[in-house]
Structure formats: structure tokens, C-alpha cells
């Protein structure tokens, strides 16, 4: 596996692959790789060759009060995991290269970026869409792979790709969960043992709502109440939001409809955890995917 740190070299390698008629896949990450990231790599490898994984802890998507400094960094372990999966290229640019002195251009997907995660973390999605657009411009991938745990992020990136006529297909991959259902996340490493135990309630809440839907519940406000009730049973958790939203607009809905998401954001101590469940209509039936 080749490791590239400079933008110019990455551009050359990626453009050569395109010129050779190869299908370039990009998996953007901030490192601290876990099984969720590795599942994105595997999905990319099924559709693309070469596969380029990027590791860049993007400062512009962290608010001043957030965890940029203490965000987990484990480059050697990450490199080994990518080597083992036979990833073609690791792109690990420096912050200086990505945001040189005088940097002043940001991209914002209006509307979508201000709801839910965007409301709780102002500026977060501006940083995400800016860095992802830069990565897309540097690598010019045919496909880029994102996890559904960050459903709003994936939706925003897809909107950006549409709005800016980008030549990159945005692929969203399933959530990968721990044995007790907790969605894998680099931030899970922050959890103290008792918080880690309490965090399983996110999955329990979604699963309870799933059962209510299977039993015929279609009232989105009652389902949101179910989420809050299950989360409320864990004293170590405090709920930021627990809602049913339209999967395109991320606006709250009052009744389940064709394409919804149950979305959760919860603090376990100082650690913010998110999760979601897709509710889609397929052949006249509601299909729920955790
Ligand atoms: O999901 C992430 O890890 C980050 O938000 C991303 C997409 C790599 C942009 O920094």
C-alpha cells in the first residue's frame, strides 16, 4: 500500500488511474478505524479498483468546544488495518496542506445543514462538506463510500454532489454494530465502562420502536415518545434529540411515510453518540433497517 501525504502526488496517482480506465473508489475517514470503516473499504473494493482510503482529522468540522485535540489518532494501527485489507493507497494529508495560510472558501449545503446535528453542532456540516469537496477534487473518485450511521452527513454530501454536478457517486453503506447493538464509532473509545453499558440503550430504543412499527404503530410522535422513554430509563444518558424525520429533508414528521428515519443523539457523560433506523416503503410494506 502506498501512503501519500501531498495533494499534488495524490492528484497525479488518482488521475493516472482514471486515465488508465480504472474505477476509482474513495473512503474518506478521520482514522481510528473500526469495523464500520473496514466495511466501507470492503464495499468499495467490490465496486472499485483502486480503492483510496483517506485519513484526515478535519479541524473545520469541530467547534472550538469539541474534541479536536483529543480525537483518537492511531496512524500506525490504521495503516496496518488498511494494509491487511490490501487497500491500494492511503491518503493522509497534513492540515497545513489542506488548509494553507489564507484559506477562506467554504461550502455549505443550505437547509439540511442546519437541522438536528447541524443545530446541535453549528458549523459542523460546513466543515464536513468543505473537506469532502476538497477530497473529491483531489482524488476525483468515481464512487465515494460513507456509513449510514452518519445519515445526515451522507444525505448532505449527496445533495452537494447533485448541486455541484460532481462526477462522484455517493454510496451509503449499512451501520455496523457491536454485539449489544451499539453502532460502531471512533468516539465509543471515550466511554467509561458504565457509560458504555448505558450506551446500549440507543439500540434498545430503536429496536423497541421497530417492534411498535411492526405491531402497526404509524404515529411518529408516539414513536418518538417510545425512543425517549427507553433512553430515559438510563440515568447516565441525556437526550439531545430523538425524532422521526423525513429521510430527504430531515424535517420532523407526525406520521410515518414512505421514507423516514428514526434519529437519536445522546450524551453519555461528555461523549455524544448518534444512531438511526431507516423506515422505507418497499412494495407497499414498511421495511425497517437498524
Ligand atoms: O465521517 C467522517 O469520518 C468525517 O466526517 C469525514 C466524512 C471523513 C469528513 O471529515
Give an overview of the whole structure.
There is one protein chain. The protein has 290 residues and is of the alpha/beta class. The chain has 2 domains: 172 residues, Rossmann fold; 97 residues, 2-Layer Sandwich (Pantoate--beta-alanine Ligase, Chain: A,domain 2). Helices cover 37% and strands 22% of the residues. The chain is built from 9 helices and 10 strands. Strands 1-4-3-2-5-6 form a 6-stranded parallel β-sheet, with helices on both faces. Strand 5, helix 7 and strand 6 form a beta-alpha-beta unit. Helix 6 packs across helix 7 and helix 8 packs antiparallel against helix 9. The two termini are 34 Å apart. The relative contact order is 0.13. The model has no long low-confidence stretch (mean pLDDT 98). The chain binds pantoate. Pantoate binds next to strand 2 and helix 6. The site of pantoate has 10 residues, from strand 2 and helix 6.
Amino acid at each position: 500500500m502506498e501512503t501519500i501525504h501531498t495533494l499534488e502526488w495524490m492528484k497525479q496517482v488518482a488521475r493516472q488511474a482514471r486515465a488508465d480506465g480504472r474505477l476509482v473508489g474513495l473512503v474518506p475517514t478521520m482514522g481510528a478505524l473500526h469495523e464500520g470503516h473496514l466495511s466501507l473499504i470492503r464495499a468499495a473494493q467490490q465496486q472499485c479498483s483502486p480503492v483510496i482510503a483517506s485519513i484526515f482529522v478535519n479541524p473545520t468540522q469541530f467547534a472550538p468546544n469539541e474534541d479536536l485535540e483529543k480525537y483518537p489518532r492511531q496512524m500506525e494501527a490504521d495503516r496496518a488495518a488498511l494494509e491487511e485489507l490490501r487497500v491500494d493507497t492511503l491518503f493522509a494529508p497534513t492540515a497545513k496542506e489542506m488548509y494553507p495560510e489564507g484559506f477562506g472558501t467554504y461550502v455549505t449545503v443550505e437547509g439540511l445543514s442546519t437541522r438536528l446535528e447541524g443545530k446541535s453542532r453549528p458549523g459542523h456540516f460546513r466543515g464536513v462538506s468543505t473537506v469532502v469537496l476538497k477530497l473529491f477534487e483531489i482524488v476525483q473518485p468515481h464512487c465515494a463510500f460513507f456509513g449510514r450511521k452518519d445519515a445526515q452527513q451522507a444525505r448532505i454530501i449527496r445533495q452537494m454532489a447533485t448541486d455541484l454536478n460532481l462526477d462522484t457517486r455517493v454510496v451509503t453503506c449499512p451501520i455496523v454494530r457491536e454485539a449489544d447493538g451499539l453502532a460502531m464509532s471512533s468516539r465509543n473509545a471515550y466511554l467509561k465502562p458504565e457509560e458504555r453499558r448505558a450506551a446500549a440503550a440507543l439500540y434498545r430504543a430503536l429496536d423497541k420502536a421497530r417492534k411498535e412499527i411492526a405491531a402497526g404503530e404509524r404515529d411518529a410522535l408516539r414513536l418518538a415518545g417510545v425512543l425517549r422513554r427507553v433512553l430515559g430509563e438510563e440515568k447516565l444518558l441525556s437526550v439531545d434529540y430523538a425524532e422521526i424525520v423525513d429521510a430527504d429533508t430531515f424535517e420532523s414528521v407526525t406520521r410515518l411515510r414512505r421514507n423516514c428515519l428514526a434519529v437519536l443523539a445522546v450524551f453519555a457523560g461528555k461523549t455524544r453518540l448518534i444512531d438511526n433506523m431507516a423506515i422505507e416503503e418497499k412494495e407497499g410494506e414498511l421495511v425497517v433497517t437498524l
